[in-house]
């Protein structure tokens, strides 16, 4: 059976943004985000991530191009498009002297939604905020304040949720709690788009990854395909005795002797199998009569791939 073509929920075509003063923040960006996926947008500071989110969420006016959000043009049908979108901004900006309960209910009302105390209660419980519902936001920790921002963004039941650096400044335990919450939201059909400086966040959560740099999308791919296509596996064999040169019978593309002669390093690109590569190298060492004392296999991380991509564009 043929696989079903994913349905785009956000379609961005030819998006440009030139700020007053001439700074070209976005340069003809084309991007499709599929319904129900978790999409991570990565890029260095100033790459255009926040501008892109701002335009889709109706906070920044585009210079050119079109954006369709769940069937609605964000320029021609602003109110309907905006009602489909929830935004958790990077900045902790909310009324610090209101209670959690009031501020989340008020956010729901801003979108013309009728009161639904059961829904708000469920959101607060999901975010471990129920016990804090009567607390003023000013008295909450930074992590709890960020949870309040997420609750506000979810209060009007959006189908698309933007998380701009959602776990910046929170501890590791809270970060993992938020990852679990994001997965639950996706299971309910919410499409998640996140920007993050934490590469492990994208590696842990995302279905697909887009890389933006200098206002241009330089790569979009499924996470696993990206790791396979651009990743590297490095097999390092520590030798029992240093070698002066690489023996002819071991001369092979991807195999090198370290400068001190104490180790052999085999680099496998793309879909190279580290375990199989290590096993093959060990057989060849036995055949050549070379003793070794250790074997270590390491797969490149998404962070290394990302840094390499950005450096190529520089």
UniProtKB/TrEMBL annotation:
Which residue spans traverse the membrane?
none
From which residue to which does any coiled coil extend?
none
Kindly give the SMART domains that the UniProt entry links to this protein. AAA
Which InterPro entries would you find in this protein's record? AAA+_ATPase (IPR003593), ABC_transporter-like_ATP-bd (IPR003439), ABC_transporter-like_CS (IPR017871), ABC_transporter_ATP-binding (IPR050763), P-loop_NTPase (IPR027417)
Does this entry carry the keyword S-adenosyl-L-methionine? no
GO MF term (any one): ATP binding
Q: Which Gene3D superfamilies match?
A: P-loop containing nucleotide triphosphate hydrolases (3.40.50.300)
This protein's source sits in the domain of life called Bacteria
Q: Where is the ABC transporter domain?
A: 10-239
Could you tell me the keywords of this UniProt record?
ATP-binding, Nucleotide-binding, Transport
Looking up SUPFAM superfamilies in the UniProt record yields:
P-loop containing nucleoside triphosphate hydrolases
Full protein name: ABC-2 type transport system ATP-binding protein
